[in-house]
Each structure stands twice: as structure tokens, then as C-alpha cells.
Automatic annotation (TrEMBL):
Keywords: DNA-directed RNA polymerase, Nucleus, Transcription. This is Methyltransferase FkbM domain-containing protein. One of its GO terms (biological process) is transcription by RNA polymerase III. Residues 485-671 form the Methyltransferase FkbM domain. It comes from the Eukaryota. Its main location: nucleus.
Amino acid sequence: MASVKEELISEVESEAQVMQIVQAALEGIDMDALTSMTPGLPQVARQNAINSLLGSKKLVIQQAPGGLLRLKVNTSQQIAGTEEEQVIYGLIEESKTRGIWIKELRDGSGLNQLQLRKTLKSLETKKLIKTIKAVGTSKKCYIVFDLEPDMSLTGGTFYSDQQLDSELINTLISVCGSYASSRRKHAIESNPNNIQMQRESSYIRPQEIAQFITEKRVLNVPLSLEDLERILEVAVLDGTIERRADGKIRACAPRSSISPLVSVPCAVCPVVEDCRPGYVISPQSCDYMKNCDDAFKDLAARLQKKEKQDKTNDSLLVNDDENPLVQLQMPERPVVDLKQDDPRIDPTQIATLEEDATKKEKETKKGDGSQVVGVSGQEKLEKESGRLDSLIGSKDVSRNAQLRGRVAEPISFNNETVFQVQDFTPKFFSKWVSCGERKYLNTNVNAIKFWDDFKGNSNECDKEAQILQNMKALPFQNRDEMKYAILPVQKSSKNVFVTLGIGQDITAEEAFAKKMKEIGQDVTFYGADPIVKGNSEQYSRIGKFFPFAVGAKAGYSTASVLLNGNYLDVSVVHVDIYYFLSEVLGEKFVDHLWMDAEYAEYGMFDMFYKNSRMDREGLTFCQMSLEVHNPKQGQKEQFMEFIKNLIKEKQYGFFFSENVSHMRMWLFNFGSQYCVKKFFA
């Protein structure tokens, strides 16, 4: 009797010892490890204990990656079904709300594909499990039927049927903005003589907005504070609200998205070079300037009225729909023939000048059809320009004549034109370089401060060199950013425009094409984006679309692409930019490059240096709108090196810099006489 009791106690102790060791191993334990950790148990006793625990469903055997079998505590709910169904259900139950992919089920259960699919179908039929399609991927995950999937799978409150609910987001942004604006207005009215109290009282906590949304039942679904914070972050980026360091927010003062300066007729007038007091084209006789003057007076009256109403110095700007300059219509100016309309010009003298210019042009033509302007020819042109200056008092008639096409026929311009004249580089670029050397080269700052100070330093150099006045770059607005371009002053046989990263928006490209058409110039458009949907149809309206990404190297690599309104990191085909330009497009000269390459730009910085591969292969970019994305680890050093090299080499200038977490800038190639001659000379 005593021996039986001793044997019984030994079995219970063996099971307890094995169970304790397996419970301590969260990922399970293999047989060899269990043996080494139970040296006091005989092999038979250990095996009997394991069999007993498996039989009572306290332990389960799972196959780890690599085929190794492990003992693990059975935490799954016992269901009625086959052994395969119990194993699969246990794996799905362990994944909880995160779900589990079919490949993970196959590895964990050791079942073949046919058995696994049959078991999953049986469990779905019994309503024990369900499938969830994760946002942003085609993978199906399996989850216990009664559980709600994790937000990482569904996208959370702002997704419906795996699609971003943009209408819901816009509604919430509007509600938050209206609530904050109401609080700001109440703060101003309650403290008419205390600006500091107005400011402090206008700040609110996000919890107050969440409570307001809940009480007013704006949504039929619960909105967590985390969800609201995501909405407020969007509103901050949109510029409708601002956030303090303590987390409180307030509505921003209404701002005009368009500067009144861009509505001044002189900024877009095609004959501004010929406009002078006392002439046929003059400010005194300009109907559009009169309309603009009336609009400015109206705006001034509105601002004075608003100042009295607000009694605050926060902002004196009005909304776009209240700004008369925004609605100001500026039709095209008629082309004026100076020979007919200006009584100070003798038509016979101009006719003689035209005959001389035609004769000179015939003498300088070569047999292959190209034209070479020699030094002597340049002196003759300067002499003829002086004769015309004496007639109408113009200091730059040769250029004005080319723009109007009236006084003399311009010399044709193409990529093969040979220039044997002096350097055409504008003097203001030298002044800009001097400023850049002071700001970027003669300073010892780290890469972080260099990035933070870049916009301010760049804008100061723009102002010092009067870039806005000298470059005469025109703005072209798309959905969320401003692009820039200079129109050619020379008659060109071809204008090449390349867009890398279309982003389902060609508003700016279409505006540029329209402006070029107005001056009688055609544009050849090429666009590349790895996402076909939305990009192919749009870009094909203006040019040729290519369904791939363009980068420094060819291959299959990760890129950030716009899908369903969200940027996602996916693997896409990349084509070498050198091969793309020279072989696919067959273009050596690119007049305009608009690049939003989603971090691929960092790999292409060195192609803009002198003696780079681009130089060796004879590729030329004249103008470039570039977005340098918010640097990751080590990329701020790359950006600093890139900017310093541009300043040292004095080839590319960068202007109109803007920091929107990403750094946007516009570059011009002053190192290419082709570019300078085409857009400045």
C-alpha cells in the first residue's frame, strides 16, 4: 500500500515539475531543453508526465519555424471539432485582435495547404473565425469571430470598407475649426481692451472639443481622444489652427492664400518692358492699372473697417472671397505696333534698319543651316541697337523687338546653336553667390542647425540679389504647393518638360502649357510615376506617361507612392535617370524638371555637380522644382553637403525656398550658356 502511494505521488510531482518549466517558457520549449532542465526525473517518468499533460489538453505540441517541435501551454478555448480544427483555432486565438496570416498558420500547424484551407473553411462555416482584409494590403488575416480587429488592420475610425473616409475627416476638421473660431471670437468680445487675455482665453484643450462632439452627436461612432488628435494635427498642417507646447489649440486668424502683389497687372503684363511714362504704352494710359488702383482703394477700405471691428492687431488680412484683387480680371494686353502708333518713330528709318538686319543675317548663315554670331556680328548688332535707341529711346530694344516680333526678326534658337560671344551669366547671380558663401560656407554649424536655418538664409540671399525682380519667374500653383518657371525669351525649336512623381495632379503643368501657348511656343511633356491609376489618364492629356519610378539607379526597390489619398512604402520598378533621358526619351536638354521623388532625390544629389555622370553624358537641366523630403538619419548631412557644393561650384542657384517639414526650392542652371541664353539673353 505504501509503495503504490509513493508511486502516485511521484507521477503528480513529475507532471507539476514539467508544467512549471513549460509555463516559464512563453515561446514553448523543445524536448532537449526540457530534458536538460529536469535532470532529477527519469526518462520514463518524464515521458509519462508529458503524455499525461498532452492527453488532458494542458499542453500542446507546436511546430516552430525550421521544423522544430515545441511543448507549449494550451491557452486556447476548447472547441468541439477535429484535432486539426482545435490546433488552427488555438493559433488564431493566440493572435488575439492582431489576426494571423495563412502562412503563419501553415508554419505553426504543420498542415499542408489542402488540409489548412479545408480546416479554415470549416471553422468559418461554424462562425468560430472570420477573415479581415488589412488596410493598404491584399493579405487576408484570420481572427476569432467575436473579437473586433486591431486598428492597425482596419485603419480605425477614419476607414470604411478599407477605404479612407475623406468626407468624415473633412467634416471633423470643419467642426473643430468652427468650435475653435467660436471660442476665439468669444475671447475677443469678452476682453475688448486686453489683447493678452484675448489670446489666452482663445486657447482650448482637445478634450473640450471631444466632449462637444460627443454631446452634439456629430458622429454615430465613438471618437477617441487619439482619433481627435490626428484630426487636429491635419488642421495644424492646413494652417486653420495652431498648437501650443502644452497641447492647447486655438483658431488661426484668417489669411489670404494669394498675395495681393501677384494681382498687380505689371507682374504678368507681356509688354511691361516697353511701358514708360509719356509713351504709347504707359502707366497713365493703362486701363488695367486703373482697375487695379480702384481695387486697392476698395481693399484699403475693407481693412480699415475690419480693424475697427476686431480691435486687435492679430491680423489685418481678409479672406480670398473678400479680396477684390483676387477677382480682378486681367485680359491679355494687345500687341502694339510701334511703327504705326508712335509719332516719334520714322517708319522709313525702321525699314532701313530691318533691311540691314536681314542682310546681316544672310551673311552669317552657314551651309548646314545653323547660324554663328561672331564678335564682329555682335558689334554690328550693338551698333544697330544704338541707332534704334536714338529713334525711340529704348535701352533694350533688341530684346523687346524679339518679344513683340515687330522691329526685326529674331535669330532662331535651338540646341545646336554655337555661341561665340561673351559670357551671358547675369550679374545678379554673382551677388547671390557672394551671399551664399557668407551664409553657407563661412560658418561652422552642424547639419541639424543648417537644415533649420536654410529657409531663412536662402530667402535673405534672394532678397539681397533681388531674385524676384531679376529672374521674373512665374508661379504655377498645384494642389498643395507652388512651382516656378521662367519663360524663354528666345524663339526655340523645342521646349522639353519632365515631371518625376506626378501625384495625380497636373494643375500646374496645364497652367504652364497654357502660358507657353500664349507666347506661341510648344512644349513636349514627359511624366513618370509608378502608380498608373489617376496618373496615366491625367498626364496623357498633355504628354507621354511612363509607369515607373525614376531614380539614381535601376532596380526593384522601395518608394513612397500615393495610393487612395495616402502615401505608402511599396516596392516598385526604378529606371536609371540617365538611361531614361538619353535612351527612353532621347533628350539631352531638359528645360524644366519638376521632381517629387519621395526620398529618391537624396541619391541624385551628386548628378548636379560638375564633372558628374550627367556632365559626361552631355545631359543638361535648365530649371528644376525640387522637393527634398524631411531628412531621415544621416540625410541632413547629405543635404548640407549638397548645398555647399552648389555654392562652391557656382553652377546652380536655388531660390524661393520653403520649409513645410519638407524643403522645397527652385533651381536654375547658370553654368549652362544654353540655359542662360535661352531664358535671359
